[in-house]
């Protein structure tokens, strides 16, 4: 028993010594870990002092965006302000937080840029000093903001210069109603006529400060991104490169007046995979963005080379209406992305819209004037160019269409001639009724002359003479009416023939090329529809014209019968008196 107790005590002492040795061995490792941290950028507990320029850059960009929101029309005001406040309230106590704030700032700028390419209709409370009411707002990009009451009787536009709403006329109110319908997708995209303030005056580009000094006041001691050891440079560079690529997708900067001459080169630098941007370049990027936001929210002028439909280029003053429309000398332009050139549309909108555009170019920023804009940013104008004109529509009908139009032209000429001739006959007959002499230039005069100068005295013979004269004159009155009726019946049948031939051509295109490209089937479908329209357009007016001419001819025939019967009765009565017999009534 004593030996067992001693063994157990010795074993417990051995365990205790081992435990203390392990504890002492573990303590130095813990202390070393706290003194020598693992080298990691994102694991640092505090931001390096070299990150101060980045903080200043973010603060300057936030301040510039806040000023832009205050200058823009107050659309979606609460939503935009809340987004900006969320970004500004993000902490920057660590490098990771600073990088996240930078990313959220770029996102806020991109959302503001995206507003310029869309139109929107939404309902919101309109607050004023007197009261608040629910209205419908119409946002045209970042260019203009309108509201209309729910009953559609009152509209207004936001005046950015006076910072107040300006009531619109009843005529302009109807334009806002149509704009709301297009924004709600109740009508297809089309040119919208809206009242807008005139364009800004041309400014001297040399008088504007270069974009490099936009973030003046930042520390010059840390001028490049390489000088910061704590900012997550890889994340910052990736976010900036994606943002610069998106900025370049908003269109050529030469058409916006944004930035300086090196703006395109600046975006090209950010597109390089190996280029690490300097702090000055980041500042210029934000300056370029703010210039682009300013251009999107206004109507500006700038000189540019414009290529006419004949291919010749001329220097013109171009009017840029937000991100929607380009005008020059009252003509609508488009920008060819492949060529990088401004082109005058070969086919322009209606003459009234061109006059409106020419008049709008002469207005200033304090005057409202109507102008047609393209809410689809050029797509509606491009579709307008593709719409065939009248001659092209006629050509789509093919041989059957030309035959229908030939018959229609001949029928219209013949019908017009008959209408003029019957009108002239009616005028001459009215003169005959007022005259005692028998005029041979009208059917009534010729019939009365035959009755009076007829040599026979027999009642039956005179009746046959009058009946023959009436039939002859009625045939002259009905001349070509049967032919007009025939054309009115044939024209729809020819249209149906064109429909069948057009569908045959369509099915042949499907059999040869499949249904992948609808343009290959458009020829046959156009022939089918155009010939149908041509047949109906031919038949309906001719049928109406035939009805009018037939009614007029029948009216003249009834008048001739009445006066011919009266003349015959008078002739027989006169013969009875001449023969010495008592007067008899001839029935």
Helix-strand blueprint:
Layout: H1 2-35, H2 52-71, H3 77-88, H4 95-115, E1 119-127, E2 132-140, E3 144-149, E4 155-159, E5 164-167, H5 170-183, E6 192-197, H6 233-248, H7 263-271, H8 279-296, E7 299-307, E8 313-321, E9 325-328, E10 331-336, E11 341-344, H9 351-360, E12 368-373, H10 379-386, H11 390-396, H12 398-433, H13 443-453, H14 459-477, H15 481-513, H16 519-578
Parallel strand pairs: 7-11
Antiparallel strand pairs: 1-2, 2-3, 3-4, 4-5, 6-12, 7-8, 8-9, 9-10, 10-11
Domain MotA/TolQ/ExbB proton channel: 444-555
Membrane topology: Multi-pass membrane protein
Keywords: Cell membrane, Membrane, Protein transport, Signal, Transmembrane, Transmembrane helix, Transport
Could you characterize the architecture of this molecule?
It is a single chain. The chain has helices at residues 2-35, 52-71, 77-88, 95-115, 170-183, 233-248, 263-271, 279-296, 351-360, 379-386, 390-396, 398-433, 443-453, 459-477, 481-513, 519-578; strands at 119-127, 132-140, 144-149, 155-159, 164-167, 192-197, 299-307, 313-321, 325-328, 331-336, 341-344, 368-373. The chain has a five-stranded antiparallel β-sheet with strand order 1-2-3-4-5, covered by helices on one side. A five-stranded mixed beta barrel has the order 7-8-9-10-11. Strands 6-12 form a two-stranded antiparallel ribbon. It has a domain at 398-578. It is elongated, with a radius of gyration of 44 Å. The protein is built from 16 helices and twelve strands. A hairpin with a 5-residue loop joins strand 3 and strand 4 (155-159). It is an alpha+beta fold and 587 residues long. The model is unreliable at 1-6, 22-47, 203-213, 216-230 and 583-587 (pLDDT under 50).
